[in-house]
């Protein structure tokens, strides 16, 4: 293991000689082994080692005992140690974050303080090869794109220096063996056993299966990560050059692109161009943003509809108007939205509701107002799921003529504040097909000899 880690450090140029390294130490086997390893060769390399520990205060006396363990270990080995207790639960509530995201933000804020205090340029963290496999799988399952799919980087910029991860070339089992051989007695966090976390389920179920197929799967995933990052760096250069011909106006809060110029670019650059736009406008991407949002923009731009409207996290609005598409954080006077719904697709509405289109060969046995059946040979996709517009009418099923949506809302006693966010489903010819939960149009297909149907489903949160 020692030679593997040394070779990995040299290959990725993680650490020069004569520098100060802050090591994030939780007290667990991974971080304790990393601290021991770096400290054991510090004299030869001329390194100055500082340990940094954060007690997140999630587990009361147990986590406080872990902090004291790290402090005592560092005292015994004459390693400078900076330790702190942070009420992450309070931070989580104030920032409206998940516990894991809140803990990560608090840790990195503290690490930045320690780096500054010791004038250090390197923060060493103990993620290992198994963590890399879990991270890549988890991000793929969540629909990640671009650099995110590459997982954990061996070296990345942080503050005025770098975060480095020297253990990405070794497995958890190798680290545990290292602890045993060197008589280390790490602490174990029981939360790592909880199957409520996606990562833990991947660790307990998928990772053992992959290792049974190939014990060196972590090496393959690390190679994938490195190649992915290399490819992404090259494609990003091409994307930046191509997007310079597409962007027509840009400010801190708004960006406008030419749709014809955009569509002339190769598709791989188109998708990366959209990602670059989001990176630029958001600065820090929201966790709720995924590849689904990229696909929604892509459909908006490349569809035959001359106009459309999307609402994204943190108030970003994406609007198409003929040959131009605007990305803006400027507030709209009216809370409107517009999404394209394709076959075998789903749309997330601003209020959290979902609209799905599912293809099936069997006609549903039980119909209701939250379901609408489409004959794909008669109605062209994509459909438009949007908020209501002034003068909207629907040709009701089983009736002659049409009715205003406004009157339907009044008859159903829908509160005024709910009407503007209520979804309306429209076809490519501009006909209102369905007012989910309230009324259907005469264009719903009956059961017949069709080989397949498209079932639209409206799911409330």
From TrEMBL:
SUPFAM superfamilies attached to this UniProt entry: Adenine nucleotide alpha hydrolases-like, MesJ substrate recognition domain-like, PheT/TilS domain
Example of a GO MF term: tRNA(Ile)-lysidine synthase activity
Signal peptide span: none
Enzymatic class: ligase
CDD domains, per the entry: TilS_N
Residues that hold ATP according to the record: 26-31
UniProt EC number: 6.3.4.19
Reaction catalyzed: cytidine(34) in tRNA(Ile2) + L-lysine + ATP = lysidine(34) in tRNA(Ile2) + AMP + diphosphate + H(+)
InterPro entries listed in its UniProt record: Lysidine-tRNA-synth_C, Rossmann-like_a/b/a_fold, TilS/TtcA_N, tRNA_Ile_lys_synt, tRNA_Ile_lys_synt_N, tRNA_Ile_lys_synt_subst-bd
Superkingdom assignment: Bacteria
Keyword NADP attributed: no
Main location: cytoplasm
This protein's UniProt keywords: ATP-binding, Cytoplasm, Ligase, Nucleotide-binding, tRNA processing
Pfam short name (any one): TilS_C
Compartments where found: Cytoplasm
Span of domain Lysidine-tRNA(Ile) synthetase C-terminal: 383-456
Functional description taken from the UniProt entry: Ligates lysine onto the cytidine present at position 34 of the AUA codon-specific tRNA(Ile) that contains the anticodon CAU, in an ATP-dependent manner. Cytidine is converted to lysidine, thus changing the amino acid specificity of the tRNA from methionine to isoleucine.
Matching PANTHER family: TRNA(ILE)-LYSIDINE SYNTHASE-RELATED (PTHR43033)
Note on domains (UniProt): The N-terminal region contains the highly conserved SGGXDS motif, predicted to be a P-loop motif involved in ATP binding.
Membership in a protein family: Belongs to the tRNA(Ile)-lysidine synthase family.
Stated name of the protein: tRNA(Ile)-lysidine synthase
Organism: Bacillus suaedaesalsae
Gene: tilS
